Amino acid sequence: MHPLRTLVIELYDKQVIQVGSFKLKSGITSPIYIDLRVTISYPSLLRQVVACLQDICRSLSYDILCGVPYTALPFATLLSVENSVPMVMRRKEVKDYGTKKAIEGVFQPNQTCLIIEDLITSGSSVLETLEPLVKEGLVVKDVVVLLDREQGGKDNLRKHNIQLHSVLKMTDILEILKDSGRLSADKVAELFEYFHSTQVSSNSSIPSGMASHNLSFEQRLSMIRNKVGRRLLEIVLKKQSNLAVAADVTTSQELLSIASQVGPHICVLKTHVDIIEDWNETVCEQLVHLAKSHQFLIFEDRKFADIGNTVELQFTGGIFHISQWADIVNAHIIAGPGTIQALRKASEHCGILLLAQMSSKGNLAVEEYTQKAIQFAKQYEDAVFGFISMGCIGEPNFIYFTPGVKLEKGGDSLGQQYTDPKTVIGIQKSDIAIVGRGIIHASDRKEAALTYQKACWDAYVQRIGK
Fold it and tell me: How far is residue 220's CA from residue 324's CA, in Å, rounded to a whole number?
């Protein structure tokens, strides 16, 4: 008999699988209940469960294990012992004395942690475990479960870029119980109809903190792989400024004047060097000096979007030599990953932002395009540290820049749409607000920059609940 068939029949016979009417943690009422806690009283059965989980774990890459409390803790413990892989444990209730740790065990930031769970309905228990792991700087990409009830949990986890790997699905269990005579064909048909029609949406399963990635910049610092991204967050924290100014001007004198005036209040100065009429090496040196003096990064808004060889020449050569002075550049993904590869190859001192969304009316950065940008960013996370987007579009190990920010909402005659800092930072969950005309056209740029710095930082502080 096939091992999975044997396992399902034994789970049913030992009343781990029960048919009736049961209320689940997700709040839904289910005609079938699976209590895998019972397995700890049957060593042989427990061994079978762990052996099945082990088959999946072998194909995955990870540094440590974490079982979702409490049912999956014995499973994770046995997997840890059998494979000599360290394990950490999440506390369900964090004590208000002692170390007050949420995660027990020895680990290092950026280690990959594999979550072990008994079964999944909505995914809420997994996400409750995921949140403190991420806060501690651990990387979570995969979850291994014995049973997927096929009621939305897999899709809910995918929204957090977590891949679910299951030994069994509910359809597998029902087929085996019907074929073995444990359940009648009519009962199985009734159960199939229930699982087909009862899905649990992500809204009921995602913890509020994780849904909006309300982690502080301090907590996210160790999660950023690119060194420019980490340096940016260090500046943000030191200056208490998540404000970027877009200096879209045409003369070097005005560019340097803006940099000098707003420098103390910003974390990033965004430039369009190709519109500067009198750019030269001296201007470049003065701009870099101002950036060092006032501690901000220079972001050349070049929007690279060509084949790799051309991009490398545009980045390193010509009359601008962008790679020599820019801390940050951005790129479209329209030409594929070659654009990113060329920028990464040409300079390890420059961080990349991908254009995932745009603020202009009628733009073509649709959802499919955005998801592709996220995919590329994950593939080249050593070089790409964030996105140009209209808010948080993924996970907290990327930094989100949003353009078109102004204290007064509205737009211009060319389709630019403006959004206020409270909406962009507080509601859309972006990290860095890019302000242009609201500061550049102000009669007192320094005062305007201070006003925007405070507005953007206050929105961030309110978002994380400090």
Answer: 28
Residues 165 and 227 in one domain: no
For residue 371, the enclosing domain spans 217-464
Separation of alpha carbons 298 and 238, rounded Å: 17
Residue 382 annotated among the catalytic residues of the structure: no
Considering 118, 142, 301, 327, which one is annotated as catalytic?
301
Count helices and strands in the chain by DSSP H and E runs: 18, 18
Tell me if 115 sits within 8 A of 66, measured CB to CB. yes
380-403 pLDDT, tens per residue?
999 999 999 988 887 789 999 999
**Alpha carbon distance 384, 377 (integer Å):** 6
pLDDT 10s digits, 98-144: 667 889 999 988 799 999 999 999 888 898 898 888 878 788 999 99
Residue where a domain terminates, one of 211, 235, 254: 211
Q: Judge whether 182 is annotated as a binding position.
A: no
Is 301 part of the annotated catalytic residue set?
yes
pTM of the model: 0.57
Q: Is 416 annotated as a binding residue?
A: yes
